[in-house]
Amino acid sequence: MTALASIDPTEVEWLALARRGDRPAFERLFLRYAPMVHGVLLARVQRADADDLMQDVFVTALERLSTFAGEEKLGAWLATVARHKVIDAWRTRPKLMAASEATTAQPPRREANEVLAVIRTLPEAYREPLVLRLVEGLSGPEIAEQVGLTPQSVRVNLCRGMKLLRERLGLAPEASDGDEGEGA
Amino acid sequence: MSYLWDKKGDGDPGARELESLLAGEKFSGMAFPPVASARRGARRALLAVAAVLIAACAVFVVLRPRDVVTVRGEGRERTLANGEWLEPKSNVTLALAREIGVVEVRGDSRLRVQRVDGEQQRLELERGHLHAVVNAPPRLFVVDTPSGRAVDLGCEYTLEVQRDGSTRIDVLSGRVVLEGAGRTTTVLAGMWAVSRPGAAPQVAIDTQASPAFVSAVQRLSSGEPDVLGLVLAQADKRDAVTLWQLRSRTENETRELVDAKLRELVAVPASAPDEKVWEACGSVRQ
Fold it and tell me: What is the ipTM of this complex?
């Protein structure tokens, strides 16, 4: 017996429609994944740039939807498109990179953009889950489902990332910090 | 970790504080469809021109004829105002605004217009029967019933609402999405589905499905236990879409049983992704 994919069957139907050029179907997919894509971008660039790149990500997704083989989850594919867009933008728009780097040494003031800047200094594996959880409001299981990672992987990265974030922000450690080894 | 992981439980004030602080940074929507950055510059220039045009259009909008649904039948022709109930004694025809289609309404039906504009034309069929032929972009034409909502994706269909509010839809061409109780059922051409007030729409069934299969599915939909085996035993290729929808409403071992039968019917290997199964469902019906 095959291990059944956890992809929402309705999503597959919308995906099939979107591939045939049905804009409302694509919009439905867009609404489902937009917060996740936004979080992936926000983990790397500032808010204004993330908002700008959102458009480019979904334009590319719309153009390349016919090449999406369905071998991976749609969310994972969109997250990859988003990460590549940031890399492309860094190449073509050095100001974007400069803005991102300029914030790495900021003191831990409790302003949203300051906290985000600190998050962007964390190891890459921790940035996305933290932004998706703390900014976009997705739960751990939702992050795993949308980005196409295992729950255990997301759980570990969330826990370790949060621990590191607390240290850099000068927050008191949570009593349960370090329990990522427990079952997901 | 519990609150950070699944947003449940108490504790972890640090995470809550950061959540609260960062809430204003979350995704807050953007224009759709998306526009490539190369075109956005040109779009900004066009916005200035558009501002002038908008002013001119405002005059036109004020002066232009309003979108209306026209009723033809019973010896006369008239318009149907928003919210006005229509209870014809004999069959009448509604001409939808902007010439997107016609709706034949049987006598003794009760229907009203809820909204008519460029974005949506929405009717409410409280009871009776209608036959809609629509040529419009998806989701522009919508019919509400006591059991939920029929959202047109460009098609021809009939809708019948009983006095208890239960609804049956038969799709003749294109496809319709039935929405209700937080769930949707896609009804393709050549299929029918029913929904009841307060309940999710049932799975769609092919009009050519065997009576034994229809009976088994209806027993399963009404909550009768131990009928799944009968449904799977009676299923034929034409029933693949029904099994597809049934699969999404089952879990664990039951879901695996439905999936195995579905893949057997459409001849798609177990390793193939769901999308291939869905495509095959459409192919075998054709």
Answer: 0.77
